[in-house]
């Protein structure tokens, strides 16, 4: 009898702990990603995301979804967008396993990106492999998303594409933390001060278009900036990110979405 009671008490405790750790954090992206997956054969796969919750319907019936193929022949080359104006700063960060990806969170913000007089605060970054966006049909090995939000709740994301080669120094600086969460002992870990200026962003040429979050709820009207220059990352680093997510999948890239009649711009400096 006593052991049955003990077992019951333990179960209750475990349930409470599970509930506590799965409480949603204020964010526009879904934090507990276990409800959807990237397996096209599954009922929770990308083509069904919009049916899983009424609030996720845009994933199926939206008209400006991301990611897209950045097709050269569709691009309008412009110079009026100006250089990317980033004023990032070091800030305390935590690293978190969201079930399908690894997210680095700056709770107090880590500076901002300014577009058209609006300052968008950098809140978090996370990784997708292989890349979600493609350039003229070409897919790369990794894509970093730097997610920013304005005081009025507008989101803007910078995407950086990587192909296998030498290690990425920003990811190298996080190796011990990624290994620690890979061991399954922790789902979230305090990293300390992380400086986003260590992320290599070649801002001289970038694509700009209006799209959506690439995970549920697939919120639209999000401006995307995809840096044109491709960076390098080692095979081990891409694998470490996949292992740390412990979702037994080898991909977390949403399939390409229709461009429809969206404007696709490429900023390039004008030389006179
Ligand atoms: C998408 O589907 C939902 C639920 O069926 C519906 O409420 C919504 O109006 C639809 N949106 C568009 C843009 O068609
Ligand atoms: C990071 O957190 C520590 C401990 O809470 C604090 O002393 C330090 O000032 C913070 N650093 C930054 C850059 O926010
Ligand atoms: C910036 O302003 C221009 C001109 O008003 C507008 O076309 C563009 O959509 C704006 N960009 C963003 C990301 O809000
Ligand atoms: C869409 O985003 C632009 C800026 O990027 C903003 O000015 C506009 O109010 C947004 N529209 C909606 C419907 O949220």
Description:
By secondary structure, this protein is of the alpha+beta class. It has a single domain, classed as Carbonic Anhydrase II, CATH 3.10.200.10. It is 18% helix and 31% strand. The longest helix is centred in the N-terminal third of the chain and has 20 residues. The chain starts with a helix and ends with a strand.
Question: Which properties best describe this structure?
Answer:
272 residues, Carbonic Anhydrase II, 13-stranded mixed sheet, binds 2-acetamido-2-deoxy-beta-D-glucopyranose, metal-binding
In short:
It is globular and about 75 Å long. The chain has 272 residues and is an alpha+beta fold.
Lay out the secondary structure.
Blueprint: H1 2-21, H2 49-52, H3 58-61, E1 69-70, E2 76-78, E3 85-88, E4 91-97, E5 102-105, E6 111-115, E7 118-128, E8 134-135, E9 138-139, E10 142-149, E11 155-164, H4 169-172, H5 175-182, E12 188-194, E13 205-211, E14 222-227, E15 231-233, H6 235-244, E16 265-268
Helix pairs in contact: 5-6
Q: What is the gyration radius calculated from CA atoms?
A: 20 Å
Uncertain runs: 19-27
**Distance N terminus to C terminus?**
86 Å
User: Treating each run of at least 4 consecutive H or I residues as one helix, how many helices?
Assistant: 6
String of helices and strands: HHHEEEEEEEEEEEHHEEEEHE
The unique ligands bound to this protein are: 2-acetamido-2-deoxy-beta-D-glucopyranose
Number of DSSP-assigned strands = 16
What's the shape?
A: globular
In terms of quaternary structure, the protein is single chain
What's the number of structural domains? 1
**Which CATH architecture is right?**
Roll
CATH superfamily: Alpha carbonic anhydrase
Largest sheet, in brief, is:
13 strands, mixed
| CATH-defined fold name | Carbonic Anhydrase II
Structural class: alpha+beta
Mean pLDDT: 88
**What is the CATH level 1 assignment?**
Alpha Beta
What share of residues is helical? 10-25%
Strand content: 25-35%
Pfam families: Carb_anhydrase
Family: Belongs to the alpha-carbonic anhydrase family. Belongs to the alpha-class carbonic anhydrase family.
EC number: 4.2.1.1
Main location: plastid
């Amino acid at each position: 009898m006593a052991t049955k009671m003990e077992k019951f008490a333990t179960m209750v405790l475990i349930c409470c702990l599970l509930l506590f750790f799965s409480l949603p954090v204020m964010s526009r992206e879904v934090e507990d990603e276990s409800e959807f997956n990237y397996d096209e054969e599954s009922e929770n796969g990308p083509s069904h995301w919009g049916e899983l919750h009424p609030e996720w319907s845009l994933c199926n019936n939206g008209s400006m979804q991301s990611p897209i193929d950045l097709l050269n022949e569709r691009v309008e080359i412009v110079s009026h967008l100006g250089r990317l104006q980033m004023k990032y700063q070091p800030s305390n960060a935590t690293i978190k396993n969201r079930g399908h990806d690894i997210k680095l969170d700056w709770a107090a913000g880590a500076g901002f990106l300014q577009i058209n007089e609006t300052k968008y605060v950098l809140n978090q970054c996370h990784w997708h492999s292989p890349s979600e966006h493609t350039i003229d049909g070409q897919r790369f090995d990794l894509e970093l998303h730097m997610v920013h939000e304005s005081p009025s709740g507008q989101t803007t994301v910078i995407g950086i594409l990587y192909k296998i080669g030498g290690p990425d120094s920003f990811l190298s600086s996080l190796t011990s933390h990624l290994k620690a969460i890979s061991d399954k002992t922790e789902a979230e870990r305090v990293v300390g001060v992380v400086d986003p200026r260590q992320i290599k962003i070649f801002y001289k040429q970038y694509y700009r278009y209006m799209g959506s979050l690439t995970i549920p709820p697939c919120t639209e009207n999000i401006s995307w900036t995809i840096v044109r220059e491709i960076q390098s990352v080692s095979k081990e680093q891409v694998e470490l990110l996949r292992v740390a997510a412990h979702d037994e999948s080898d991909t977390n890239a949403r399939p390409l979405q229709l461009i429809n009649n969206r404007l696709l711009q490429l900023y390039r400096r004008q030389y006179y």
